[in-house]
Amino acid sequence: TLSARAKVETEDYIGVGKGSAGTEISSNASLKLNNQFSVRASGTYGSNKTGDRATLEGGLDYSFSPFTVGLGLRQQLLENTATFLTGRVAYQAGNLGLDVNHAQTLSGGANPQTRFSARYAFTPQLSLTFTDTLTWGGKNQAAIGLENKFGNTTFTVNYELPNGSGEGNLARFGASTVLPLSDRLSANLRGNYTTDLEKSTSTLEGGVD
Question: Which pTM value belongs to this model?
Answer without folding.
Answer: 0.81
